[in-house]
Amino acid sequence: MMIERVRWLLILILLSAASGGSLAAAGSVQPADLDLHPDATVATAAVEVDGRVLFRVRGVSSFPARERAAAITERIKRLAGDPALPADSVRLVESGGYSSIMAGDRRIMALFDSDARIEEVARETLGLALCERIGKAIDEYRHDRDTQVLQRRGLEAAGATAALATMVTLLLWLARQLNGLLERRFRSRIHHLGIQSFEIVRAESIWAGLRAALSALRMLSILIVSFIYLDFVLSRFPWTRWLAGNLTDFALRPLRLIGEGLIGYFPDLIFLIVLALLVRFVLRLLRLFFDAVAQGSVTLLHFEAEWARPTYKIARFALLVLAVIVAYPYIPGSESAAFKGVTLMLGVVVSLGSSSIIANLIAGLMITYRRAFRVGDRVRIGEVTGDVTQVRLQVTHLRTLKNEEVTIPNSQILNGHVMNYSSLAKKQGLILHATVGIGYETPWRQVEAMLLQAAARTPGLLAEPTPFVMHKELGDFCVSYEINAYCNDARMMEHLYTELRRNILDLFNEYDVQIMTPAYEGDPKQPKVVPRDQWYAAPAVSGPVDDAPATASGTQRPLPG
Questions:
Q1: How far apart are CA 233 and CA 251, in angstroms?
Q2: Taking residues 301-316, what's their average pLDDT?
Q3: pLDDT (tens digit per residue) in 379-388
Q4: In total, how many domains does the chain have?
C-alpha cells in the first residue's frame, strides 16, 4: 500500500513539473490531480475530425498537446472506420483518480480532474459530454463516406459549378451594360478639375479612375461569388471540409493584417499622400513653365529654348529623388531587415547595370548644353553623315543621305569628334572644295580661270564671298589646284558637289585641258581629252553647248584675259 502511494506521489510531482499538463494519452500518462493557478497559461490543441473541432486537450512535457490531440484523433478515425463497432458503444469508465473514455474494449483517451478544472465542470460531466461528441463524430464520419451521400453531394457540387458559371457570365454582362450606360450618359459631362486656368486633374484621368473603380467592383463581385462557391463545394466532402473551414481565415487574414497595418501607419500614409500630391503639383508647374520657355512665350537671359526640355527632365529627376529621400522613413516596413536587404540588392543591381546608361545621360546633357549641334543640323559623327532628327538623353538620331535612321550613343559622340556643317553656313557660309591635277604645260592662270568659271556656272554657290583657288601641291607630273566656293545651305552639299564636279569636267573638256589626277603614268600618243562630239554620248542627255569651234586635237585654246 505504501509503495502504491509513493508511486502516485512521484507521478504527481512529474506532472506538476511539466507545466501542468492535463490530458495524457491512454497508457502513456497515469492518473493525476493537478491544482492550477487561475492565471496559468495552458497550451492546448484541437481534436479535429473531417474539419470539425470536437474538443481541445492539453499536454505535458513528455507528450505535448499537439501530439496528444493527433493521437486521439487517429484513434477516433480508426474506430469510425471499423463498421463492426457501433457508435453508441462509446462510454465513460471511472477508474478511481481518473476516467477513461472507452469504445468497446478500446480506450480512446484518459480524463483527469485537472482537465475538468480547466473547463470548470465536474470530471464526470465533462466525460459524458466528450462521449457524446465522440459518438456523434463517429456517426458523421461514417455518414459522410456513404456512397449514396457522396453521389448526392457530387451532384450538388456540379449544380453549384453551373450556378457559378451562370453568375460570372451575368456579372460580366451587367458590367458591360453599366460601362456602356456610363459611357453614353456621363462621360461627356465629366470636366477637368482645376483652379481657374490651372488644370489639376484631366477629364480623361477622372474617367479612367471611374473605369478602374468599375473594374475593381466587377472583380470583387466575382471573387465573392467564387468564395461562396468554394466554401459550399469544399464543405460537401469530408476530405476537403478542413479547407472550407480555413477558407475564410485564408481570405480575411491578409485583409486583417493590411487593415491593422494601415491603422498603425495611418499618420505616415497621410504624410505620404500629401507629399505625393505636392510633388505632382510642383511637377505640373515646372512642366508649364518650361513648356512656355520652349515655345518662346517666356524668355530667360542667356537661356536657349532648346535647353527647356532637358532642364525640365533634370529638375523632375532631382525633385523625385528628393521626394523619395523625404518619404523613405515614412514608408511602411522601411525599418525592417527585409526592406533594407531588398533596397541594398536593388542598389547593387542598378550600380552594376547602369554605368553605360549614366555615361550616356551625362553625355546627352553635356551635348545639349554645349550646343554641339541642334535638331536639323547636318553633321558628321565618326563615319556617319546625316541630319540630326532627335537629341535624347541616351542617344542621338541621325537621318543619313540615303534616308537611313542611325542611332548613336551620346557617350560615343562625347568621346569622338563631331563635324557640324550647318552651324556657320547661314552666317559665314560653308566652303565646298574640289581638287584637280593639271599638267605643267597648262598656265596656272588659265586653270584658275576655268575653275572659277566652273564655280560661277554652279547654281547654289554664292558669288559673295568670292570663290578662290588654292595651289595645293607641285607634284611629280602635275600641279594640284583646289577650287573653294561658298554656300549657305548645308543640306545642299552633296548636290552642289555633284554640280561643281560636272561643270569642272565640262569646262576642262571644253578648253581641251587634261585632268591628270588621281593617277597619271605618262602621255599616250592620242590626246587625253573627251572630244566635243562625245560629251553627250548615251546615256547622257543632249543640251545646249558653246558652239565656239574646237581647236585641233591635243592643243589648248587660251582663255580670254
A1: 16
A2: 74
A3: 888 788 888 8
A4: 5
